[in-house]
Amino acid sequence: xxxxxxxxxxxxxxxxxxxxxxxxxxxxxxxxxxxxxxxxxxxxxxxxxxxxxxxxxxxxxxxxxxxxxxxxxxxxxxxxxxxxxxxxxxxxxxxxxxxxxxxxxxxxxxxxxxxxxxxxxxxxxxxxxxxxxxxxxxxxxxxxxxxxxxxxxxxxxxxxxxxxxxxxxxxxxxxxxxxxxxxxxxxxxxxxxxxxxxxxxxxxxxxxxxxxxxxxxxxxxxxxxxxxxxxxxxxxxxxxxxxxxxxxxxxxxxxxxxxxxxxxxxxxxxxxxxxxxxxxxxxxxxxxx
Length: 289
Description:
With 289 residues, this protein is mostly beta strands. It has 2 domains: 1-33; 34-283, Lipocalin. It contains 1 helix and 14 strands; from the N terminus they run H-E-E-E-E-E-E-E-E-E-E-E-E-E-E. It has one helix at 2-27, and strands spanning 40-41, 48-49, 54-70, 83-99, 104-118, 130-148, 156-164, 180-191, 194-205, 212-224, 229-238, 241-253, 256-265, 276-283. It has a 12-stranded antiparallel barrel with strand order 3-4-5-6-7-8-9-10-11-12-13-14. Strand 10 (212-224) and strand 11 form a beta hairpin. The longest helix is centred in the first third of the chain and has 26 residues, at 2-27. Mean pLDDT is 90; it is low at 1-26.
């Protein structure tokens, strides 16, 4: 009788073990999702959000552009000729994101900024030689929609809509004089060697003399090196401005990770240097995947 009891106990343990392995296999994401998990892509590089998840991301960004292109008219004076000045800025930003459904997310971002501009010595306009402004920076929001999920035979497709709220029209460096809108779309495909994303957008700027224009475009690479580290690299541009973006993500705990980002201008009209550092906190949907 004891032999039968022992046999039944061993059989139960084996069955339980197979059941746990089967459950784990069912919940483990497929290979093409190993770099990014199951969430919807946000506007933050290499950052994804799931249904019911709430993201808070405070971060700091610095801008340095020693050949900043401008015309006096753009800064409130008379003159359409382009010159090259100097532009420096420090910006503290707060990003909020929430996963409305498994395929739809909403996000908001607000910034406080301190900026300075030195005009070109070749500029004869009445612009002051130095302009300094500080206060509220961009206030913007986005809807992110994944309308086709990736599977073994096709990539993921997504679209997004962005709006920027007008404010501080009298501040030529940091204000937003009119409504700004952006509509974009892209696709993502996961491979064993990393995940690629391609995206592009069109823009509307109410305050511009040519309000409709081709917006940002980018090609991005994301790779999970270990449970603690992910790396990102991307080429992002708008018109004839192109920058190289690199980022390391350090997952300190299951729901907190540090983003160390760096932007380098590859063309003369792009911002020369724009480093960024911040910490992502997630709530409400379990550990970061």
